């Protein structure tokens, strides 16, 4: 029996899943939004980003394991207790001095190790072999959380409904291999099966790259690098809506824009972003704009991640998309600092939002000519060490680096110079760059160094779902394959979060299925389909969440 992984030995490990698309990507400058009388922005919409909350040492710590061997700049601990740590759980000395946080978990249920990402002031050479290290008992999960249910006992989650810690069918016996089966229910391999969620490995198709802290023997036995449990088999992702603004006519199409003026629509989401998430294997809940922070705190306790879509909202606003994005970013920082794995993804406008919020609300963008360009990515030297790409199939890396499949539609860029001069590189990694029509270099892909936050300046979803014949969007097999990788990657990240709605009925009230997708492409819209939301939609759901 082992922790859930996608198989040992020769099982498959590569990524699949569908992308989705839409949104023009950049902002106008400083215009008030159309809805609610066209309010002007009040100051920059950023703020609040990047803060960590030091909660001080825990009341007590207990022995967790001992220092076994180094792995690059990390420690590998041999765990001596049965309970399983949370991702990012702090690790301490006996005197409660924190030395780092749990990064990876690998091994099987009865015999596993963890790697510890050391704090900035810590060095591997400071520790001696077999040195005891400690953990806050409040950061542990009981082992029985990961054991298979007794014969005849159903999993606690309702079929097809809300994920309830085990979901449909319990934890074990899903295509498990011989001699131990596949723990945690996903295609376990032979002689011990899976592990803590791996994405590739020695003999798996689609792995490779990146840091490997397991020993050679473990790699041969398990075939995967194991990271974290539990695994959520019913993820739900929040997609942030944005305001309908005065310069949105070219996105909606003229007739649709006029119709929105006559109606009571307040905000929208491009349907391609919904399809992007659904194609990766998750469901979608729309997240409203112009709500109090308490609303975002409540909804983020229920969803498993948030996507910031592209569009043309303004960052100077202290309302709408900018304000909601700031609230979500602040709450996500608090959650991740507590060891709750909560992923964020930003596409185009959302990419820029993440960068601005990560820069404490200061706008670091430059005007550029990145509209309607299909480009290949210029990867940085450290991209293979990133979470986003370290386990990507080589075929996907080859496509992204050699073929013009990245659909760019933006009027603003973040240059590498601004990225570093604003010290954004201290908390974020730059993974790829491109050049615009005037040969200006700009950042294309970023990843937070500590938290599961990811941003792409291009639109991986447009390759699948936007069909304007005059567009430069590629719909080739290679373009589709690369888009599917990004969708699958992010949804896999959300599976590591175990938030859930209280009941299946509560989830059903919030899912995007409650609203129709309008065929806006026939009216000249840049998006083939869109969801529109009235003010009372948000008010109704605000009253139903507690």
List the SSEs and their pairings.
Elements: H1 35-38, E1 62-71, E2 74-79, E3 84-85, E4 90-92, E5 98-108, E6 111-118, E7 132-135, E8 140-141, H2 216-222, E9 236-240, E10 242-243, H3 249-252, H4 254-262, E11 265-270, H5 271-280, E12 283-287, H6 293-300, E13 306-308, H7 320-337, E14 344-347, H8 349-358, E15 366-375, E16 378-379, H9 394-402, E17 406-413, H10 416-421, E18 428-435, E19 441-448, E20 453-456, H11 462-465, H12 477-494, H13 504-510, E21 518-519, E22 529-534, H14 535-544
Parallel strand pairs: 9-12, 9-13, 13-14, 14-20
Antiparallel strand pairs: 1-2, 1-7, 2-6, 3-8, 4-5, 4-7, 5-6, 10-11, 11-22, 15-17, 16-18, 18-19, 19-20, 21-22
Helix pairs in contact: 5-12, 6-7, 9-12
Record keyword descriptors for this entry.
globular; alpha+beta; disordered N terminus; Thrombin, subunit H; 22% strand; ribonucleoprotein; secreted; RNA binding; 546 residues; signal; eight-stranded mixed sheet; Rossmann fold; six-stranded antiparallel barrel; 14 helices
Q: Look at the helices and sheets and give the structural class.
A: alpha+beta
Tally of DSSP β-strands: 22
Mean pLDDT: 76
Strand % is 15-25%
Enumerate the strands of the largest sheet in spatial order, edge to edge or round the barrel.
12-9-13-14-20-19-18-16
CATH architecture of the domain at 35-52 and 232-461 and 475-519 and 532-544: 3-Layer(aba) Sandwich
N→C terminal distance: 39 Å
CATH superfamily of the domain at 35-52 and 232-461 and 475-519 and 532-544: Class I glutamine amidotransferase (GATase) domain
CATH class of the domain at 35-52 and 232-461 and 475-519 and 532-544 equals Alpha Beta
Can you tell me the residue ranges where pLDDT is under 50 for at least 5 consecutive residues? 1-53, 154-210, 215-229
CATH topology name of the domain at 35-52 and 232-461 and 475-519 and 532-544, in short, is: Rossmann fold
**Radius of gyration over C-alpha positions, nearest whole angstrom:** 23 Å
Largest sheet: 8 strands, mixed
Mass-distribution shape: globular
Helix content: 10-25%
Per DSSP, the total helix count is: 14
């Amino acid at each position: 029996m082992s922790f859930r992984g996608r198989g040992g030995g020769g099982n498959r490990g590569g990524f699949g899943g569908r992308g989705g698309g839409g949104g023009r990507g950049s902002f106008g400058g400083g215009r008030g939004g159309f809805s609610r009388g066209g309010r002007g922005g009040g100051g920059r919409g950023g703020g609040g980003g990047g803060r960590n909350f030091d909660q001080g040492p825990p009341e007590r710590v207990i022995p967790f394991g001992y220092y076994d061997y180094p792995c690059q700049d990390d420690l590998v601990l041999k765990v001596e207790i049965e309970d399983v740590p949370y991702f990012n759980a702090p690790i301490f000395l006996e005197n409660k001095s924190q030395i780092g946080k749990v990064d990876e978990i690998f091994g099987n249920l009865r015999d596993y190790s963890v790697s510890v990402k050391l704090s900035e002031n810590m060095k591997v050479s400071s520790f001696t072999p077999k040195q005891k290290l400690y953990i806050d008992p409040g950061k542990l999960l009981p082992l029985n959380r990961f054991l298979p249910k007794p014969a005849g006992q159903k999993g606690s989650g309702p079929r097809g409904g809300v994920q309830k810690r085990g979901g449909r069918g319990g934890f074990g016996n899903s295509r498990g291999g011989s001699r131990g089966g596949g723990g945690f229910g996903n295609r376990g391999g032979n002689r011990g099966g899976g592990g803590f969620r791996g994405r590739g490995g020695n003999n798996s198709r689609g792995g490779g790259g990146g840091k490997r802290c397991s020993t050679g023997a473990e790699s041969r036995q398990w075939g995967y690098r194991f990271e974290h449990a539990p695994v959520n088999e019913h993820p739900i992702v929040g997609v942030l809506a944005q305001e309908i603004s005065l310069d949105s006519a070219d996105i909606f199409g003229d007739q649709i824009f006029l119709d929105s003026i006559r109606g009571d629509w307040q905000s929208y989401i491009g349907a391609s972003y919904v399809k992007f998430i659904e194609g990766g294997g998750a469901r979608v809940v729309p997240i409203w704009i112009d709500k109090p922070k308490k609303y975002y705190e409540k909804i983020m306790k229920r969803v498993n991640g948030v996507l910031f879509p592209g569009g043309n909202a303004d960052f100077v606003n202290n309302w709408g998309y900018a304000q909601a994005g700031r609230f979500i970013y602040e709450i996500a920082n608090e959650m991740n600092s507590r060891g709750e794995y909560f992923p964020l993804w930003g596409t185009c406008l959302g990419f820029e939002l993440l960068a601005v919020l990560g820069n404490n609300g200061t706008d670091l963008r430059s005007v550029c000519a990145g509209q309607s360009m299909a480009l290949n990515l210029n990867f940085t030297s450290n991209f293979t060490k990133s979470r986003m790409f370290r386990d990507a199939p080589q075929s996907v890396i080859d496509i992204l680096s050699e073929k013009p499949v990245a659909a760019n539609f933006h009027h603003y860029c973040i240059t590498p110079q601004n990225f570093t001069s604003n010290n954004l590189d201290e908390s974020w990694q730059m993974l790829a760059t491109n050049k615009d029509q005037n040969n200006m270099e700009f950042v294309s892909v970023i990843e937070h160094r500590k938290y599961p936050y990811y941003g792409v300046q291009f639109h991986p979803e447009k390759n699948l779902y936007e069909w304007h014949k005059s567009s430069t969007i590629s719909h080739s097999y290679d373009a589709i394959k690369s888009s599917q990788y990004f969708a699958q990657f992010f949804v896999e990240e959300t599976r590591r979060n175990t938030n859930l709605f209280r009941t299946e009925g509560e989830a059903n009230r919030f899912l995007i299925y409650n609203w129709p997708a309008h065929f806006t492409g026939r009216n000249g819209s840049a998006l083939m389909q869109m969801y529109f939301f009235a003010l009372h939609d948000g008010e109704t759901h605000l009253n139903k969440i507690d």
